[in-house]
Amino acid sequence: MPRAEFHQVVSALTQARRQAQPMALALADWVPDSLESAYALQRAGADELGGAAAFKVSALAAAQQAAMGVAAPVAGVLPRDHVLESPAVLAVARLREPVLECEFAWELKRDLPPRDEPYTRDEVEAAVAALRIAVEVCDTRLAAGAPLLAQLADGFNNGAFVVGPPCVHWRTLNFAEHAIVLRHQGRELARGTGRAILGGDPLAALVLMANLRPTLGGLRAGQIVTTGTCTPPVSLPGAGEVQADFGTLGVVHLHFGGHVPAQPGS
Q1: Residues 105, 119: Cα–Cα separation, whole Å
Q2: Phi and psi of 98, rounded to 5°?
Q3: By the 8 A CB rule, do 77 and 49 touch?
Q4: 226: Cα separation from own chain's centroid
Q5: What is the pLDDT of residues 51-80, one digit of tens each?
Q6: CB of 102 within 8 A of CB of 230?
Q7: Cα-flanking dihedrals φ and ψ of residue 42, to 5°?
Q8: CA 231, CA 244: separation in Å to the nearest integer?
């Protein structure tokens, strides 16, 4: 992609996110032709929004990769301007089609830079500062059915990311059986367990992310890596209070203010 065109696409993606508007350029005019190009656009957009505060990783299992048409996990940069601590207040006007996901994430205390030799599980575990419970608010600025490379360029469908309290005593946790309940205004929206993440092993997802070698620049101390949803994705029903209850690990609190747009097909 020529340099001038690259910057035009980054600007359009960033403006669409900031204004909660559809991407101004038609898909046919800018879809990346490779993972490398998609990641370059993604990272440049995140740099415009405060830099990389966190990452999301997906397509962890072979079946998911086959469904997405990729040969390895894929990742998204979560920009600093859109990563919040619980309790968080979010303006619905900053979102187009908000969808909620409850996730386990890892905060790092040391760098995991790119290298030729794969990181071992022990090395990755030693780099973990704490487990963080979290809610990703997924969103998109793209038309329905946009190809994966376009989704990756657009921050991999991220609208916001809210992290709850840290937990340092996570090694004895049975993730596969750990229940999570998502509520809106006290009404249950969804529930699940950590079994959804590689059978209950979210640390393995972090190992995959550490050994993923797109042009993302590696992982840095202080960054957070979230490992995918443990609850079925659900559309935000309306403004008000959302609680993601992770039991003994705590609760992630979000307050959504304003009118929620109608979801497609509703």
Answers
A1: 18
A2: -65, 130
A3: no
A4: 6
A5: 999 999 999 999 999 999 999 999 999 999
A6: yes
A7: -60, -50
A8: 10
Mean pLDDT of 184-198: 98
Q: CA-to-CA distance for 209 and 12, rounded, in angstroms?
A: 28
Q: Which residues pair with 54 in a beta bridge?
A: 78, 224
Q: Give per-residue burial for 89-113: e unless 16+ CB within 10 Å, then b.
A: ebebebbbbbbbbbbbbbbbeeebe
Average confidence (pLDDT) over 217-224: 93
Burial class (CB in 10 A: 0-12, 13-18, 19+), 51: middle
Strand 99-108 and strand 224-229: the pairing is antiparallel
> What is d(CA 266, CA 258) in angstroms, rounded to the nearest whole number?
19
**Whole-number percent of the chain with pLDDT over 70:** 94
- C-alpha 138/C-alpha 149 separation (Å) is 17
Three-state SS sequence of the chain? CCHHHHHHHHHHHHHHHHHCCCCCCCHHHCCCCCHHHHHHHHHHHHHHCCCEEEEEEECCCHHHHHHHCCCCCEEEEEEHHHEEECCEEEEHHHCCCCEEEEEEEEEECCCECCCCCCCCHHHHHHCEEEEEEEEEEECCCCCCCCCHHHHHHCCCCEEEEEEEEEECCCCCCCHHHCEEEEEECCEEEEEEEHHHCCCCCHHHHHHHHHCCCCCCCCECCCCEEEEEECCCCEECCCCEEEEEECHHHCEEEEEEECCCCCCCCC
- The predicted pLDDT at position 265 comes to 44
Q: Which amino acid is at 108?
A: L
Tens digits of per-residue pLDDT, 229-250? Answer: 999 999 999 999 999 999 999 9
